[in-house]
Design a protein that fits this description.
single chain; alpha+beta; Aminopeptidase; Elongation Factor Tu (Ef-tu), domain 3; 8-stranded mixed β-sheet; 6-stranded antiparallel β-barrel; 10 helices; 29% helix; globular
Length: 354
Amino acid sequence: MDQTEQFLKTLTEAHGIPGYENEIRAVLREYMRPLGTLTQDKLGSLICRQAGEGPKIMLAGHMDEIGFMVANITKEGFLKFQPLGGWWDQVLLGHRVIIKTHKGDVIGVIGAKPPHMLSSEERNKVVTKKEMYIDIGATSKEEVTTAGVRMGDPIVPQSEFVVLANPKTYLAKAFDNRIGCAVVIDTLRHFQATPPSNQVIGVQTVMEEVGIRGATTSVYAVNPDVAIILESDIAGDVPGIEEDESSVKLGGGPSVLLFDARMIPNIKLRDLVIDTAVSLDIPHQFSLIAGGATDGAAIHLHATGVPTVVIGVPARHIHSHGAIIHRNDYDNAVKLVTAVVAKLDAAAVADLTA
């Protein structure tokens, strides 16, 4: 396992659902501490400022992953749960989860009424989250309490980082959006060695999956002149998705987001990203997401407005226990972001809103 693979393994295997980011924040803090002056806003987002003059360039990735919260404990000892972030019902059943309790981790599995006991009509319906439960092997509420489980405890997917048969593809939970966090850190590493003619500020935000909350507060602490959002993107190269729905493919390069439900990028900044990719022969793709948004939704509306663009690393099966990315897409995303940031001097930034 090379250095980048170990880096991504550490980030993805750390736990941190919205509002419960302590573990992943501690990991990110250790990576970012040598790279600049590190502070934290009052919601928990990390802000790493590198010394420099000129325009303030904000690089933002969100540290939280989707998960659950214990919402109820039945008298028989089963846990009902509240999703934190968007889960599709059909990816849940049979998956192992970890309940993070004050006594330590407790393993469980998501279950529902056995198929043998379903009517023919019930078998043809999707089982909804309301009908599911988490089974930790208890037979009473008292056993659950003894194990340390309390109402409000966070629940995370149990899923390890794996290098797949194609050694350039990786499977893990939380690529949404630990992959963006990783791009932020590798970009800061680059500019620590080669300082640009601007100020680079890397931010790892919290609670993106429940309403871009960390971006809303951290942008006040940064007050940026330009923002680049680093995200996972939805790879559309799986069965059932037509070319006119998504042309984003694994291994096709980082994506440039043209539109989402809450942001249209600054056009000149978008074109700077595209022109930079073309000039450096960096493969790249274009993405439109009509049904979602990123931290850019809050950041581009800060104060009188912030020129903002989103650069993504394509991932299959996001918002599940296991997503897949391609190493080339990650490496090219870092290459593209560092090249764009290096061009954002005072004149270039002024031109974005001229």
